[in-house]
Amino acid sequence: MSAPRDILLGSFRAALAAADPLRIVPRHLPPPPAGRTLVVGAGKAAAAMAAAVEAGWPEAAPLEGIVITRYGHGAPTRRIRVVEAGHPVPDEAGEAAARDILARARGLGEDDLLLVLVSGGGSSLLSLPVEGIPMADLKAVTRELLASGAPIQDMNTVRKHLSAIQGGRLALATRARVVALVISDVTGDDPTHIASGPCSPDPTTHGDALAILDGWGVRPPPSVAAHLARGAAGAIPETPKPGDPGFERSDVRVIATAHASLMAAAAFVQARGITPMVLGDSVTGESREVAKVHAAIARQLRAHAHPFRPPVAVISGGETTVTLRGKGKGGRCSEFLLSLAIEMGGVAEAWALAADTDGIDGAESNAGAVVAPDTLARAAGRGMDPRRMLAENDGYGFFSALEDLVVTGPTRTNVNDFRIILVL
Fold first, then answer.
1. Is 306 exposed, middle or buried (0-12, 13-18, 19+ CB in 10 A)?
2. Secondary element (H or E) of residue 364
3. In the chain, at which end, N or C, are there fewer CB atoms within 10 A of the end residue's CB?
4. Residue 348 — pLDDT band, cuts 50, 70, 90?
5. What mean pLDDT comes out for the span 252-256?
6. Whether the Cβ atoms of residue 223 and residue 138 lie closer than 8 Å to each other
7. Phi, psi (rounded to 5 degrees) for 308
8. Which of 185, 171, 61 is nearest to 123 (CA)?
9. Backbone Cα Rg of the chain
10. Which residues pair with 178 in a beta bridge?
11. Burial readout 99-133 (b: 16 or more C-beta within 10 A, e: otherwise)
12. How far apart are CA 113 and CA 106, in angstroms?
């Protein structure tokens, strides 16, 4: 059998390959229309998706466009302009590009095609605040929501009601036929939640957005509070809802999911004589609490060989959350792993990896990290206190000191977090 670390990294690479836009996008491209084709989009995979469109599009067919991706996640393109902008907090670069996208979509005719490339991260990247809300206020409420521990669906409900382009508004802004290709980074794969659904009807309301802010203890800037209150009172229009005839021209296709990536990782380990135990692609909750459940499963497998006899790979996906309490560095995956290491307490022959499939865990340079049976012992040898570092949300600092970070650089895709525990 290969070394445990090699198996962990190999399974992660298999998961990434299953969500590679260069492999997936070409087979979902529509035929060129009679008129023009405008490609627009936003997300961490946007640049790679644009490059894939160019590779699969006939050279003689008209093609132009603009997509927005995170800083450092660009890719070379010839016919589609790539703009890099702020994530997870929006910025003026994204605002200007989103304004351009909306204007160009409005200029299309009935014989044209609007090809929309949507992937995770698009909610902050495709940020065009409604009139009366300055970008500074959108940044402020975004930071507060990120720190609150609110799940992505709740965050996007708020953002859709502060946006001039999301929540289905992009699709309804054009007379052209709309085809949206979507790489999902949310549990359930509902397009209305992915990049805040620029081409999908929005079932939520301004009142829902107000309730979410209140429920998570977020005090929005006055401009945001006033706008949502006016919407809840019916003084300004709601987002387009399911059943709106404007969506009859739109075809929204989810072309890559976390589930497909988990199945690819499961096939990878199974080919190496390891039984995959897939917990699903919709694992949510606080990272440190989710880790406790995963640790209990690993201990059960190791101690009782039930429900499967080792070697077993426990695989899961989804998006956990982190409520910021300390001043450390790290994202969801490093927080999960630090809590997992503590809870497993050095279980023999148990290894783990957790990584964000976009290549960036939180705001740091790593995709994730690896836990080994001797992780706690090595930490003790360096005088490190894992529980104190977890209290400080300092998973990055912990695994960086142990030289156990997983660094991939931007992967230019995004199907949420990937977790695997290998019990040998």
1. exposed
2. none
3. N
4. confident
5. 97
6. no
7. -135, 150
8. 185
9. 22
10. 114, 250
11. ebbbebbeebeeebbbbbbbbbbbbbbbbbbbeeb
12. 12
**Burial call 170-180: b when 16+ CB within 10 Å, e when fewer:** bbbbbebbbbb
Cα angle 119, 124, 128 (rounded to 5 degrees) comes to 110
Taking the CA atoms of 192, 319, 357 and 44 in sequence, report the sign of the dihedral they define. positive
| Tally: H helices and E strands in the chain | 16, 12
Query: pLDDT, tens digit, for every residue of 197-206?
Result: 999 999 999 9
By the 8 A CB rule, do 166 and 159 touch?
yes
In tens, the pLDDT along 171-196 reads 999 999 999 999 999 888 999 999 99
What the chain holds in terms of domains, given with CATH numbers, is: 4-12+259-423 (3.40.1480.10), 20-128+163-204+239-256 (3.40.50.10180)
Other residues' Cβ atoms within 10 Å of the Cβ of residue 90:
23
User: pLDDT tens digits, residue range 98-132?
Assistant: 999 999 999 999 999 999 999 999 999 999 999 99
The DSSP annotation for 187-253 comes to: TT--GGGGGG-TTS-----HHHHHHHHHHTT----HHHHHHHHHHHTTSSPPPP-TT-GGGGGEEEE
Tell whether the model's pLDDT for residue 150 goes beyond 70: yes
Confidence of residue 149 (pLDDT cuts 50, 70, 90): confident
- Structure tokens of 388? 């104190």
pLDDT per residue over 33-50, tens digit each? 999 999 999 999 999 999
CB-based burial label for 237 (10 Å; 0-12, 13-18, 19+): exposed
Q: Is the pLDDT of residue 1 over 70?
A: no
Tokens standing for residue 97: 């590009």
- pTM of the entire structure? 0.91
